[in-house]
Design goal:
Strands 1, 2, 3, 4, 5 and 6 form a 6-stranded mixed β-sheet that branches. A hairpin with a 2-residue loop joins strand 2 and strand 3. It is flat and about 85 Å long. It is of the alpha/beta class. Helix content is 52%, strand content 9%. The longest helix is centred in the C-terminal third of the chain and has 34 residues. The two termini are 56 Å apart.
């Protein structure tokens, strides 16, 4: 048995307090005063075509007046850092301030222990670098990298493959949804939110014009009690839901009428810009809800599901976790592991009608039609099958009509179908990557243009990460070749 006194004595002897005063100024930098060429941020900076981005970015700014704008490398670099590392705007600025590699990535020539810009500038960066600009950058990078692959590279002179040549490569297409970070859109809850917003507008108008008479009655306490009584019911019946919707609708419609009367006697500037925007959205939302209530329907084209994000629509997906997702619908193409957003829409649409446009875009980019198109069942309509047959393209899946009578041909057809389905799983893996590793599963921006930019940024970053992985693998292979 150990002696307790010896054990204590052993622990006291092993502990030695360090004197940390004044050590940081003399700390040795591991990179010896220079940045390592194999660092991920240094290599990412070499991949992005900054000159082309500068041309697109400059078109958004005024060339004659105004204060000097932040360089495009700072703007795009900060957005890439934020998305890749998952930081907030404030944390992104602090990380750039502390890390010399991040400062090099945004174009700084020397390390400076100061904020490169204020965190509020991140909002302007997202507005200036729109989704259209980021899509052009992504398409340019993908086109350059795909043409370097063995399938699309011209082995004779290294130039682009000639237009009208034989079919080559595999095109994988599919659709997905980019859900927004928002509350589930329950009608009664959204009506309660609209009621509270209109009540604040009435309060603001009455405060700005106190001599115009007494403030209109809003019945806010009674309306709030009725709403709380409804939401505490876990399984309300259909008639109870309709009663709650009707009651909240009447309160909001009454408030809107009072607001219009108060605006006639007052000044429109008594409401803020945000309140005016909310008022327009609420008026349209109430009109839609009244129509749905009368017709006893649940949805329609252009239905608003969020007052804060009126551009968001319900996208029918039919997944196991829910029949609907609320966000933008995307049609994505995958070539040699690189993904491009072919269409982004906030309204629901049939992605099967988009295949011919994607095939023509593929031919313009790479000079030839694909040899194989791996797509879901919805793409296999007669128009697409005839279009692909005329151009010598094999569209995945079983053929239309009667099956083959020959048993050998049946087995061969099933083998090809299994192979195509296995190839098509690559785009499902890409969706899993951008939704788990990046932020495509929860778009946290508020405006429509900034949400579109955030979606395009996710795919741009995923493609840059693939380029970086391929370059690192090539360096490793060349290193092994020396031995």
């Amino acid at each position: 048995m150990r002696n307790p006194e010896k054990a204590v004595h052993f622990e006291v002897e092993m502990y030695k307090k360090k004197n940390t005063e004044g050590e940081f100024p003399r700390m040795h930098l591991a990179f010896g005063g220079t940045l390592r060429a194999d660092n991920r941020w240094v290599q990412l900076a070499q991949i992005i075509p900054w000159d082309i981005v500068e041309e697109r970015y400059a078109s958004k700014l005024c060339p004659d007046n105004g204060r000097p704008a932040v360089p495009v490398r700072v703007a795009l670099g900060a957005l890439i850092i934020k998305e890749k590392l998952g930081f907030s705007d404030e944390e992104t600025v602090e990380q750039i301030r502390e890390n010399p590699y991040l400062q090099y990535f945004i174009g700084k020539e020397e390390y400076r222990d100061e904020k490169p810009f204020d965190s509020s500038m991140m909002v302007r960066f997202r507005k200036r670098l729109s989704g259209k600009i980021l899509k052009e950058i992504n398409d340019l990078i993908v086109e350059q990298e795909v043409k370097k692959t063995k399938t699309y590279k011209d082995e004779d002179d290294g130039n682009d493959p000639p237009a009208g040549g034989g079919n080559r490569g595999t095109l994988i297409v599919d659709a997905t949804c980019a859900p927004e970070a928002m509350r589930f859109p329950h009608d009664v809850t959204t009506l309660d939110e609209a009621r509270r917003k209109t009540e604040k507008m009435i309060d603001a108008l009455h405060t700005a014009n106190p001599g115009e008479g007494s403030k209109p009655r809003t019945y806010r306490k009674k309306a709030r009690k009725q709403f709380l009584r409804f939401i505490r019911n876990r399984k309300p019946r259909e008639n109870e839901v309709r009663r709650a919707i009707r009651t909240q609708l009447q309160y909001v419609e009454r408030n809107i009428r009072n607001i219009k009367e108060m605006l006639k006697a007052g000044d429109p500037q008594d409401l803020t810009r945000k309140q005016w925007r909310d008022l327009r959205v609420i008026q349209e939302y109430i009109r839609q809800q009244r129509k749905l209530y009368r017709e006893r329907t649940l949805g329609g084209a252009g239905r608003i599901v969020s007052l804060a994000k009126p551009h968001v629509r319900a996208i029918a997906r039919g997944k196991a976790r829910g029949m609907f997702e609320f966000g933008a619908k995307l049609t994505v193409s995958l070539v040699e592991g690189y993904a491009c957003v072919e269409r982004l829409s906030w309204e629901n649409y049939n992605e099967g009608t988009e295949l011919t446009d994607q095939l023509e875009a593929h031919r313009r980019r790479y000079g030839a039609y694909p040899e194989v198109v791996c797509a879901d069942k919805i793409f296999r309509n007669r128009e697409n099958l005839e279009y692909c047959k005329e151009r010598g393209i094999r569209l995945s899946g079983p053929k239309l009509g009667r099956p083959y009578g020959d048993e050998a041909r049946k087995r061969e057809q099933r083998r090809i179908e299994r192979m195509d389905e296995s190839t098509r799983q690559a785009i499902e893996g890409k969706f899993g990557e951008v939704k788990t590793r990046y932020s495509l599963d929860r778009i946290a921006t508020r405006l429509q243009e900034t949400s579109e930019g955030a979606i395009q940024m996710v795919f741009l970053l995923a493609n840059l990460a693939r380029v970086l992985r391929i370059r690192i693998a090539d360096i490793f292979v060349r290193f092994l070749g020396y031995f």
